[in-house]
Write a structure and sequence with these properties.
- This protein is of the alpha/beta class.
- The protein contains ten helices and six strands; from the N terminus they run βααααβαβββαααβαα.
- Helix 3 (39-45) packs across helix 4, helix 4 (47-55) crosses helix 10 (224-244) and helix 5 (69-82) runs parallel beside helix 8 (151-172).
Length: 245
Amino acid sequence: MKFKKIVGFGDSWMFGDELLSPDLKQTDANAHACWIQNIPYRESHCFLGLLGEHYSVPVENYGHPGGSFQSMIWTFLWWLRHEPSLDECLVLCCLTESDRTSFYWPDYSKNGTHAEWDKFVHSTWVNHGSSTIPESYYDLTKRYIALSHCQELSSYNYQQAVTLFDGVAARHGFSLLQFHTAHPPLDIDIPSLIWPKFNLIRFFLDHQDNQDRKWYMPNGHPNEMGHTIIRDLLIPEIDCVTMSE
């Protein structure tokens, strides 16, 4: 095994949204998966943490609820500047919906509750009416949707992201695998894209063993069983890539 750490980028599926510690549920009826107290449980039970356990290596999870290709790229570039041992990393990019976008909020992390790389306002937060976002970003998002949002731009967002991730990994010599959470807007032949015409959302919806939604949490994210399914899908792909290098 040539990697000594697994690093993940993506949206809420990579993050492990809705995975909530049973102990936390019992002590607080309002407990939320994003709480700091829930980090150990969430990160150990999401598929990235399960892969780390399988391969006996540490993991770094840069997934973020509501994340877009833009926020994935910015976070990936931040990580690239701060990772001292790139050649010892296996990177997994869980590719999100291409019609999302993110805006950079320089002051977002200054209250001390966010990671240094986390300075984003996601369009998905605006669409869901988050009360934590300044009104100016609501206006910015509405203007973006009205003036720029279109299928062509979504395709460019997707192409830019998968090409950048693949090219940077090839240039720096570390292992990287990309796979879709949602349906991609176009077909691209990229060496690191392991399932070009496959996406996890469709797989979960169509699988006969999941017709009673036993792999889902109430808001549509994978539960503990669902994350185990994703882990088991990825292990053969990881083994194939790392053994061939």
